[in-house]
Design brief:
By secondary structure, this protein is an alpha+beta fold. The chain has a single domain (28-150), classed as Nuclear Transport Factor 2, Chain: A, CATH 3.10.450.50. The protein contains four helices and six strands. It has helices spanning 3-20, 30-48, 51-57, 74-79; strands at residues 58-65, 71-73, 86-98, 103-114, 126-136, 139-150. It has a six-stranded mixed β-sheet with strand order 2-1-6-5-4-3. A hairpin with a 5-residue loop joins strand 1 (58-65) and strand 2. The two termini are 40 Å apart.
C-alpha cells in the first residue's frame, strides 16, 4: 500500500468513527430522574438484602415475579426481593415511562451474577427488569417488579 492510499484510508476511518459513537443520553425530567434514582437505590438494597429499605420502599400490596416465573405477594414478595447471594446486578438501558402523575414504569436490562450454589443451576446472567412505582402520601413506592431471563443477543 502506498503512502497516499494509507493516508486516504486513515482519513476515511476518521470521518466514519464519529458517526459510530453513541448519541448522548437523553435529558431526564425531574420525575424520571427521581425514579431512576429510586431504582438504583433498590438495586443497591437488593445487593445488601436490606429489609429495612424494602419495608420503607415497597407498597403494602407489592407483587414480585421472579426469573422463574413464580408470583409472590405481600410479605413473601418483600422477603424474596433481597438476595444476599447476589454478587453483581449491573443495570443498563434504563427507561422511565410516566403513567400520569402518580405512577410510572421503569424498565431496564441487567447483568446478574450470584454466588454459585451446589444444589442449583446458575441464575440467568442476563435479565430484563420491569418495575411499577406508585406515588403515595409518603412518597414513591415500589408496587410491582418482574425479572425476565434473556439470552445475550436476543434483543
Amino acid at each position: 500500500m502506498n503512502p497516499g492510499s494509507m493516508f486516504g484510508a486513515v482519513l476515511l476511518l476518521a470521518s466514519v468513527i464519529p458517526g459510530v459513537a453513541q448519541a448522548p443520553a437523553p435529558i431526564l425530567t425531574s420525575l424520571q430522574q427521581t425514579l431512576v434514582n429510586n431504582e438504583k437505590s433498590l438495586i443497591e438494597a437488593k445487593k445488601r438484602d436490606d429489609a429495612t429499605f424494602f419495608k420503607r420502599t415497597v407498597s403494602d400490596d407489592f407483587t414480585l415475579v421472579g426469573p422463574d416465573g413464580q408470583m409472590l405477594q405481600g410479605r413473601e414478595a418483600v422477603d424474596n426481593l433481597g438476595d444476599s447471594d447476589l454478587v453483581e446486578l449491573m443495570p443498563y438501558d434504563i427507561k422511565v415511562m410516566p403513567e400520569g402523575d402518580d405512577a410510572a414504569i421503569v424498565t431496564y436490562d441487567a447483568i446478574v451474577r450470584e454466588k454459585h450454589k451446589e444444589d442449583e443451576g446458575p441464575q440467568p446472567r442476563y435479565q430484563h427488569f420491569t418495575s411499577i412505582w406508585v406515588k403515595q402520601q409518603d412518597g414513591w413506592k415500589l408496587n410491582f417488579q418482574q425479572a425476565t431471563p434473556t439470552r445475550w443477543g436476543d434483543w
